[in-house]
Amino acid sequence: MDLIRYYIRQLFNIIKTEVFILPSRMIVLLFFITILGLPLITNDPYLLRILILASIFAIFAASWDLLSGFTGQMNFGHALFFGVGAYSAAMLNQHVHIPPWGSIPLGALGAVLAGLIVGIPCLRLRGTYLALTTLAFPIILMGIVFAIPHITGGELGISGLDRLARSRVVNYYIAVLVMLVLCTIMWKITDSNIGIIFHAIREDEVAVRASGINTTRYKLLAFCLSGFFAGMAGGLYAHFMRIADPSTLEVSMSFQVVIWSVFGGVVTIWGPVGAVFVLFPLLEFFRFWPEFRMLLFAIVILLILLFMPQGLLPWIRDKIESECPRCKIRNVATRKNCRICDTSMH
Amino acid sequence: MILDIIITSLINGSTYALLAIGFSLIFGVARIVNIAHTAFFMVASYCIYMITRKLGYHPIVGMLVAIPLITLLGLICYKLFIDPIREHEAAVLISTIALAIAFQEIMLLIFTGDYLSVPALIQGYFTVFGAKVFYQQLITFIAALVILGALRLLLMKTKLGLAIRSTAQDREVANLMGMNESRVAMITMGISVALAGFTGAVVVPLTTVNPFMWLHPLIMMMAVVVLGGLGSIKGSFFAAYILGFAEAAVVFLIPMGAFLKGSVALSVMILVLLIRPEGLFGVAFEEER
Amino acid sequence: MKNLKSSLVIILAFFLIVTFCFPAWGAKTIKIGVIGPMQFVQGKGHWNGAVMAAEEINAKGGVKVGDKRMKIELVKADSNEFLSMTDATNAMELLMARHKVDFVVGGFRSEAVFAMQDIAMDYKKIFIGTGASHSKLCLRVAEDYDRYKYWFRGTPFNEKFLGKTAFIQLATVGAILKKSLNIPKVKVAVVAEKAMWVEGMIAAAKGFLPKMGMEVVGVWQPSQAATDVTAELSAIQRAEPHVIFTIFSASVGISFAKQAGELKIPAVLTGINVEAQKDGFWEATQGKGNYVTTMNTYARGVETNEFTKPFVDRYIKRFGEVPPYTADTYSAIVYTLVPAIEMTGTLDADRLVKVMEVREFKTPGGKVSYLKDKQGRPLHELKWGPGYLTSLGVQWQDGKLVGVWPNKWVAAKGAPEVTYKGIVPFKIPPWMIEKYK
User: What is the rounded distance in angstroms from the CA atom of residue B260 to the CA atom of residue B274?
Assistant: First the structure.
């Protein structure tokens, strides 16, 4: 009993000292609470559907950022991992009758394999060459999908997959929990030694090699990790929509994820996640003007990028927090003196 | 059969060459990956459609009016949306994607999704070595060669060409040498968009016009540019014909696999890149600070 | 500038909040959802047909449900199925959860309709498909009746019957060619876009055509959005076919017809070419699509039965073009749903399904009757045949799309000849007559 009270007191302590200090961390906490508690307030299946899809795409966008934001290898064919994950999960479910909680991770492993296949040729390429080459891979796979329709279902895809769970609310919780767990894992990866190496590879690869680190291994690791998470997203998508079809491999899907991530701010994991939760409902909201929907979407992106080229969320973060000039710790923007080293903030 | 393949590849290759040269130019000079390049091509096609079908003028008039209009449009878009954020390459990329989507939607609103077509400059066809070739396709082929020649002249023999080439080699030093780098970038953008418009004028009678026509040429164009080497105009030219040949070969040799021509061309590109990462004639850029 | 940026963020936040809080309005009407790709011709057909139906019924005072009259309220939902599967499923969910529609009509792309069908079945609402032809949609009804019984096919008949009709039309054209041009054996080139529904037809063509006394000289499969098919056409020309059997549903139909016409290929283009069914085809091919033949459901002047002419004429008068087959949302509402509702006096889906699946009734396209499979399980699939639904064969003749089939068609040995009113004779392209005379 006392032990439990001790742990609860510790938890409150941590929240008071670590989370409440910075508005950005409070927003994250609020986000967690809202997204977990939403089904208690509303039962609207349409709303839940939008959020489930947003969660799935959030995993997808965050995985892109892990690869292209952090290691700087611009991947324009991220839909490949998504599609491979979706199709593998679908084929495992349909032909081998593995239930969703098995087929999705196994499908993600298929996407890891795809990550290796894509990563190895791309080791020698840089910059725009890399970007445009990766663009080609999902298109080639789509051609193959059409060429062997009896296995892949051609342009109809594979339909009739098992659902994740019987009820919409349980579906929602599965998607949201998986998203929160996976995104936290991704964030932890970037916060670790591996993350530092990824940052370094992006900034100056030659220097990293000169320091004795095998950049090849880390670049391939980035591809594989990114592929795994994107594959999980793909598998979830296939089982939620109950169909895995070639639209998961389309160029527009690759472009969408790049748009979301850059809009939300690259080189962060929370940027793309936030951007998806902003842009995806926005696109649905624009349903009120069906002819102008995509146009408004494009205009919103153009304007936001014009004024906030670093991304929307980093811009917001810079407005509410600032960095201390001496100890580089983040503080609330309204403070006059840094909370750690007490120097003036201006 | 071989003759058919060669003739087809020459013609298809010319289309890709025209598009790729414009794209390569703006990338080499200003490091802008202009995803909206084929979208300008689409807007030019719609312009020509408007002028020839709705207003009833001859296609030549359509071409002469559309190209300056498109160039103006391109320059305005560049000034408004791309120039302010040129330092952030990722943002520029996304902006051009958003621009392309915006154009697509505007065309969809004005013209709806129906398929439209534009009359050819010279109607009819002629037979060479047993294969039937449209006059319009011949025009496309000749146009590609003419444009390449003209561009080469511009780049090698004029002062502007010198400025463009030096900015492409090293932006900062060109600035130091007294060339107004941002003005050169703008002029290059104008030339690039004008090329896209010209391609639209020449190629469009062979295809159907619809708001989504910019996606497929975009992929092929990027494959051509990457294969030929970014920043190299000569490379884009040759790569265009190589990929055109690959596509034609697929269509003729595997009739049931004609839909695979895109995939095969892209695979060719990847294979070449594996062997030579800078593309065929590419210049390996130094790490830029 | 700073204020501008801040206000942008506030506006975005406002949008987000409003999205989540938009309430649904309820009313005492029968809500019918119309779902389709509204930016494109097919979706417009869905909506136009439904609008005509709703206005007609409401003008009569509405639908008699038991002892009260209820008006029809249409809810438009843009599925955007050509571009985004997620959009299609979201649109269907919106109809079900927010607008709480009682019935849904529409759908076009088979793959999107699979997903949309699942959602409608989850909510147990009757969904009449007016566009997708895949047979598996109806097989699901037989395999899992309790879940999928709310699905009915409104139009077109499934791809097996489509293929059958296309082959019959091909045989008719072949016979005409044989007779007028004295061709001993008709050679056929099969050109089909790369798509799943086509695979079965290509295999069937390779099997059937030799039995019909025709020779298959080759099979070409360009991609759906191919705009330049001169390569394929050169190869086809070398094979010297008399008939080019086309199986197209996408834009390649226009490019192919246009370029084949420009090159004056001495062959008849027949088969399925969905783009050629539209009035805009003539413009899109700049007249080079002359003499192209395709299957269609409606044509100016052709009367399948006594309901056809009033429907087609009213549609042309209102919307300026011949109704595409997706405009059969009109039949779905006026002839399928409303009479069933009036017969049972209720909107309850289960009771309506029982009544609907045994009805046989006439619509402007023909007579509707639902099939059962070999084990007697209901498929809710449309029956094909003379006296039921046969569709038409239409041909472009000098800028006009006219009906050319069924023209003295004998469906089986000993069966009576079938010719619909308004059918005109088939025309062979003059450059082909020149070559073969």
Answer: 21
A153 to chain C, any CB pair closer than 8 A? The answer is yes
Contact A243 C85 (CB under 8 A): yes
Query: How many residues are present in chain C?
Result: 437
Mapped to the 3 state alphabet, what secondary structure does A237-300 carry? Answer: HHHHHCEECHHHHCHHHHHHHHHHHHHHCCCCCHHHHHHHHHHHHHHHHHHHCCCCHHHHHHHH
* Omega before residue C37 within 30° of 0, cis: no
Distance CA A318, CA C70 (A): 57
Q: How far apart are the first and last CA of chain B?
A: 52
Q: Is residue B188 part of a domain?
A: yes
H or E element at residue C46: helix C41-59
Task: Answer whether B206 sits within 8 Å of C285, measured CB to CB.
Answer: no
DSSP symbol at B287 = P
Helix (H, G, I), strand (E, B), or coil: what is residue C271?
strand
Residues in Cβ contact with B183 at an 8 Å cutoff, skipping those fewer than 6 apart: none
Please, what is the angle between helix A270-285 and helix C2-21, to 10°?
60
Q: Using alpha carbons, list the distances in angstroms from residue C425 to A161, A282, C166, C173, C407.
A: 49, 55, 17, 11, 8
Question: What pLDDT sits at residue C4?
Answer: 63
Two tokens at A282? 């926005």
Instruction: Work out how many domains chain B is built from and give that number.
Output: 1
Burial of A322 (0-12, 13-18, 19+ CB in 10 A): middle
Verify whether the Cβ–Cβ distance C20 to A153 is below 8 Å: no
B222 CA: distance to closest CA in chain C (Å): 18
Nearest Cα neighbor of A270 from A198, A171, A182, A333 is: A182
* pLDDT one-digit tens code per residue, A281-340: 988 888 888 778 888 888 888 888 888 888 888 888 888 888 888 887 888 888 788 878
Range of the domain at B50: 2-213
Contact at CB, B98 and A146, closer than 8 angstroms = no
**pTM of the predicted structure, to 2 decimals:** 0.85
Q: Tell me which of B273, B276, B280 to substitute to probe the interface with A (most A C-beta atoms closer than 10 Å).
A: B273
Rounded distance between C-alpha atoms, residue C194 and residue C219, angstroms: 11
Nearest to C226 by CA among C277, C264, C192, C271: C192
Angle CA B241–A254–B30, to nearest 5:
60
User: What are the structural domains of chain A?
Assistant: 43-307 (1.10.3470)
Who wins on pLDDT, B230 or C123? Answer: C123
Three-state SS string over B207-267 comes to CCECCCCCHHHHHHHHHHHHHHCCCCHHHHHHHHHHHHHHHHHHHHHCHHHHHHHHHHHHH
Whether C419 and chain B come into contact, CB under 8 Å, resolves to: no
Q: Which domains does chain C have, with CATH numbers?
A: 30-156+305-382 (3.40.50.2300), 160-296+406-436 (3.40.50.2300)
pLDDT grade, residue A211 (50/70/90)? Answer: very high
Amino acid at C26: G
Residue C435 C-beta-side C-alpha neighbours within 13 Å: 14
A304 CB within 8 Å of a chain C CB: yes
* Alpha helices for chain B (secondary structure H): 2-30, 37-49, 59-77, 89-111, 135-157, 159-169, 171-176, 181-203, 215-228, 233-253, 261-275
- Give C227→chain B minimum CA distance, Å: 5
Q: Is C433 on the interface with A (CB under 8 A)?
A: no
Q: Under an 8 A CB cutoff, do A266 and B90 touch? A: yes
Closest chain B CA to residue C251: B115
The answer as to whether B173 is a domain residue is yes
Distance (Å, whole) CA A32 – CA A35: 5
Contacts of residue C70, Cβ cutoff 8 Å, sequence gap at least 6? C28, C29, C30, C62, C63
Segment A327-343, tens digit of pLDDT: 878 888 887 888 788 88
